[in-house]
Amino acid sequence: TVQQGPLNQAYLYRYFTSLLHAPWDLLSTKIRFAANVFPGDYLFCGGEIKALAPLDLQHGEVTCSIWQRNQDDELILTGEGRCRVPLRS
Question: Residue 6 in contact with residue 74, Cβ under 8 Å?
Answer without folding.
Answer: no
